[in-house]
Structures are given as structure tokens and as C-alpha cells.
Amino acid sequence: MGLLDHRGQQGHKRRSGEGAERHVDGPQGDEQEERFQFLTTQRDDLNSAKNSLQQAIREIDTTARELFLQTFVQVRENFRNIFMTLFGGGECDLRLENPETPLEGDIEIHASPRGKRTQRIHLLSSGEKALVALSLLFGIFLTKPSPFCLLDEVDAPLDDQNIGHFVRMLNRFKNKTQFIVITHNPRTTTEAADAVYGVTMQEPGVSSLVSVRMRGKTVDETITPAHPAHKPQLHDEPADIAETAPLTA
Question: Could you give the domains of the chain?
């Protein structure tokens, strides 16, 4: 009996202690209640902020998708027109890798110069790749002109005929965009440039920077077969001086 009474008293004490943990009266209970209300308010604020951010992300994605598709359609049409001008025919297209998620997928460039079947750009020759890239660049400029553009040796793989197309495109767009062209091609320099900056070495081991302001006939006149090649002249200087100072732009 003594053992049973002892275990009964321990059980009673344990149940009394559990009740004390479940319900606390006095100042300590008020503090816990305030703490609970504070945490509940913080949780509700976080959930509200989360929902607001998710709604903002959905609105941004919708707006970005609409603007992207509008710009894509314009660039695609301009790209086709410029391509036809530079190649004198053929077909080209810009395609979305995944039309369902245009903001996350890639854009594929397909080109078919006149006399060739449609294929991806990496299968074209170096000169054809350069013209396709220029077609896309000028197509973007038609959609949203840029104040400056730097072109580094883009005309290097082009033959004489395509150089003429390239020069015409430069003269067409240079009223809205200032082009800085790094080139060793004399046709690009003389027929399209308004100013030339180059380095010449008149003495071995001594380099000097030379700038020339170009002026003369328009490129449409100079590339016509009935007209001879245009000979540029230095601004306010005799033409023979321009011949004795070769420049590399």
C-alpha cells in the first residue's frame, strides 16, 4: 500500500505541473499573450507582402511579354526588309525557340541567301554571316535607333559588291546614329566616312596620329558603274597631300 500511495502522489504532482504549464496567470501570462499577438501580426504582414510581390511579378511578366512580342514582330519585319536589300533576294526569319515562354527561350536566326535553301546562320559562309548580322543590327536600329554604334572589322569578310551594299546602309542610317567603324577597307573609309582617324608611320619606329575630314560625292554616285571610283580630298588641302598620307582606320 505504501508503494501505491507514493506512485499516486507522484502522478498527482506531475498532472499538477502539466496544468501549470498549460495555463499561466499573472504578469507572465500577459507577456506571453502580447508576444503571441505580435508574432501573429508579423506573420500576417509577411503573407500580405508575399502576395503583393507575387502579384507585382505577374504584372511585370505580362507587361514584359507584351512589349517583347511587339518589339520582336517589328524587328523581325525590319530584319527581313534589310536582308532583302543587302542580299538582293532570298529569305530570312527570326523564330522563338519556345513561343509559350518567349522571355526564357532563345531566338533562332534562319537565313537563305538567293539560290540557297533556308538554314541556320552557323552553316553560312563568313561573308554571309556578316551580312546577316548587319541585317539584324540595322533591323534593330529601325525599330529603336541608338545614338552610337561601334563596328569592328565587320566589312573584312565582304567582297567588293557587298561592300557597296554595306556602305549604302551606313549612309542611310548615319543621320540618326553616329557610327564608329574600325576598318582597313578603303571603300568603307572613302565612301562612307565623314572623318577618318588613323595611325601612320612616316619614319621607322615613329607612329603619329592623323585625322582627316572627308568630303566629296555621295556614295550612290560613286558606286554607279557609269562613274569612276571616287577620290577623296582632304578638307582645305590639296588632293596630292591626301595621296601621300596613307591611313589605317
Answer: 63-144 (3.40.50.300), 147-249 (3.40.50.300)
